[in-house]
Write a structure and sequence with these properties.
The chain is an alpha+beta fold and 506 residues long. It has two domains: 51-289 and 441-506, FAD/NAD(P)-binding domain, CATH 3.50.50; 291-435, Succinate dehydrogenase/fumarate reductase flavoprotein, catalytic domain (Flavocytochrome C3, Chain A, domain 1), CATH 3.90.700. The protein has 16 helices and 20 strands. Strands 1, 2, 6, 7, 8, 9, 19 and 20 form an eight-stranded mixed β-sheet that branches. Strands 10, 12, 13, 14, 15, 16 and 17 form a seven-stranded mixed β-sheet that branches. Helix 1 packs across helix 2, helix 3 (62-73) packs parallel to helix 9 and helix 3 (62-73) runs parallel beside helix 16 (484-501). The chain is elongated, with a radius of gyration of 25 Å. The structure holds flavin-adenine dinucleotide (FAD). The site of flavin-adenine dinucleotide has 42 residues, from helix 3, helix 4, strand 7, strand 17 and helix 16.
Amino acid sequence: MHNEKNLTRRNFVGAALVGGMGVAATSFLAGCSSAPAASDTQGANQEAWDEETDVIVVGSGGAGLAAAVEAAGAGVGVIVLEKTNIIGGDSTLCDGILGGWGTKLAKAQGIDVSADDVYNWFMGHPEWYGPKDPEVARLLADKSGETIDWLQEIGVPFVEEVAPRFGYTELPVIHQVDGKGAEMIRILKENAEGAGAIIETETAATKLIANDEGRVIGVAASSKKGDKRIKANKGVVMATGSYAGSPSMLAQLNAESAHLLPGSNPGATGDGLAMAMVIGAYTARAAELPLMSSLAGVESGSIVNWNYYERLHGLWLDANGERFFNEETNYENPTGHRAIVRKQNEQGKQVVAFIGTTPELEAVLAMRPIEWATGETVEEVAEMVGLDGAQVKATVDRFNSLCETGQADDFGRPAEFMIPLTGPFYAAPISVSTSVTMGGFRTNTDAQALKLMAPTKEGSLTAPIAGLYAAGVVCEWNCAAGATVLCAVTLGRIAGQNAAKEEPAA
Ligand SMILES: Cc1cc2nc3c(=O)[nH]c(=O)nc-3n(C[C@H](O)[C@H](O)[C@H](O)COP(=O)(O)OP(=O)(O)OC[C@H]3O[C@@H](n4cnc5c(N)ncnc54)[C@H](O)[C@@H]3O)c2cc1C
């Protein structure tokens, strides 16, 4: 049953010979299965296809597998290409935190949150990672709960409690997948394969192939077995995720990103973004700094995710031992992480987290040691991390005096977080990592990849690229914290549904 809808290399040739699909059969038998010509559009119809299906999904994360479940469920042939030997990309690594309204789980708890609340929350943080395209944001907000219910219906387990989550949102919308991203991906894969999708691992799409009219009709792909061309009768869904697994891609797109630690899976190398640019898709925000996390103590293996759930009320010190920003900036607010990145680039050295002993630190120490430079005096700890002891002492003394007198803080740190530093003291360099990049395909609400057009009297500046869909982080990122993987699944479903409805290319 599974393979009937997908014509693999072997049975495609057989079918072609029996059914008289002469173009492909003849050229395959002539041995034309090598890499495609440099141009995507020229000669697309003349070269042989090695495999054929209806919908090709590129990438097996939340976006790709959701597309595969929907397209295969609609009864069409689906091949999912996955570059690595692991299914699920960042979606399988993720914490499974999904923010949506009006779900069965939320209703069972009597929670009253509307689509407008979620939309306003998405749009209410324009200086953060907020959505830039209001129509797509509206769609993602409207469908956020529906997607969670759908995941539950297909078998993804959730913990019962729906609640706000510190570091994500104050709205009571956070649903937690029981078993996190790995369990969600396991169930999505099971459903995709159950509906007939074929997943080819260790097979990377390398190029989108379009016909002379510009319709995307297939992909070139590469695996250990060699290069091949796969025909997609109905469409291609790009779901290749971020470029946060590639330091060189990060640095190429934004020089300020040059020293970020890659926090994504190794398959997240921006292939989709590059293919989008080659085919002339409308991409946006690729040059922006990505979503970042600031981690103190990476070198010692004793990591504190700064500003996240372990708020330790410390200081950030530059190479001169001086403060430069409000260290209590919220986790989701990128300005704190950006300030660290920019300071590190400017001084060519890491910024140092310097903390005293507080009840919060003691709570962490009760659970695990923090193996940072430590000691009873400010000076000795500062020297251990390469800072000038006298200068750091002056900085700490000034901060402590501001705390005591209730004077306004130099950097806008709120009064509730003006907590004096007392020993023992701890210090460690801060590294900044990323797992969610910003740039990618612009899509419409049908998940169609767009191209930019010259203005007309009607004023429309974009048009869909026929046969090409995109979903997930390979798109211009369109949501705030806690909704990334959920929005990937939502748009992935839409991409799969719509690709399955396409008329085959002539
Ligand atoms: C540790 C961690 C925790 C996170 N926690 C959360 C969370 O709790 N909630 C939340 O909303 N977000 C979270 N995120 C972010 C979120 O998981 C991801 O942004 C999201 O899952 C991306 O989904 P995707 O389908 O777009 O891409 P991915 O899941 O990354 O899938 C893309 C896939 O495409 C494959 N691929 C790439 N190039 C090619 C190619 N050329 N050919 C074939 N395949 C290719 C990749 O190998 C990968 O498997 C977390 C991220 C990380 C790293």
